[in-house]
């Protein structure tokens, strides 16, 4: 049985822009873990008993980044499931997409993370070392551009 985790890919728009400029106005939130290899990832975590996947994503975002569900807008039509191995065991991570309502909202990290950054797509892909996360961030960017 695969370990299951859920999270939110959170972005903010620095200013409204037409699609041709959309990538220049969007930044993605990545958190740096305070354990292991200190990798960068969107907020995510394991599903607790009795929780559904989306509840987990919002709870983990609140715990890890200090963001309440009321501070985010869930973007309809985007959900991504990633499958990979961690220490030889299968893991499934489900991500939804959410936009910050106020791009100046303060991020409050838990002890699980030591740093956060708002990054444009190119930099976010450099920080997110795993290919599947890089591909997911690019897919999100294309998805957002297609909705303009």
TrEMBL record:
Residues 1-141 form the Nudix hydrolase domain. InterPro entries: NUDIX_hydrolase-like_dom_sf, NUDIX_hydrolase_CS, NUDIX_hydrolase_dom, Nudix_hydrolase_domain, Tetra_PHTase. Keywords: Hydrolase, Nucleotide-binding. It comes from the Eukaryota. One of its GO terms (biological process) is ATP biosynthetic process. Catalyzes the asymmetric hydrolysis of diadenosine 5',5'''-P1,P4-tetraphosphate (Ap4A) to yield AMP and ATP. Exhibits decapping activity towards FAD-capped RNAs and dpCoA-capped RNAs in vitro. Belongs to the Nudix hydrolase family. This is Bis(5'-nucleosyl)-tetraphosphatase [asymmetrical].
């Amino acid at each position: 049985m695969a370990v299951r985790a859920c999270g939110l890919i959170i972005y903010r728009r620095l200013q409204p822009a037409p699609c041709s400029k959309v990538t220049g106005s969007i930044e993605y939130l990545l958190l740096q873990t305070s354990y292991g290899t200190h990798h960068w990832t969107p907020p995510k975590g394991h599903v607790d008993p009795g929780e559904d996947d989306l509840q987990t994503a919002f709870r983990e975002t609140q715990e890890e980044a200090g963001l309440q569900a009321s501070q985010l807008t869930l973007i309809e039509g985007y959900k991504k499931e990633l499958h990979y191995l961690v220490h030889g065991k299968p893991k499934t991570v489900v991500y939804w997409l959410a936009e910050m309502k106020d791009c100046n909202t303060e991020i409050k990290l838990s002890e699980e993370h030591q740093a956060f950054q708002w990054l444009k797509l190119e930099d976010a892909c450099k920080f997110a070392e795993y290919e599947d996360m890089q591909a997911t961030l690019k897919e999100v960017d294309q998805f957002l551009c297609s909705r303009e």
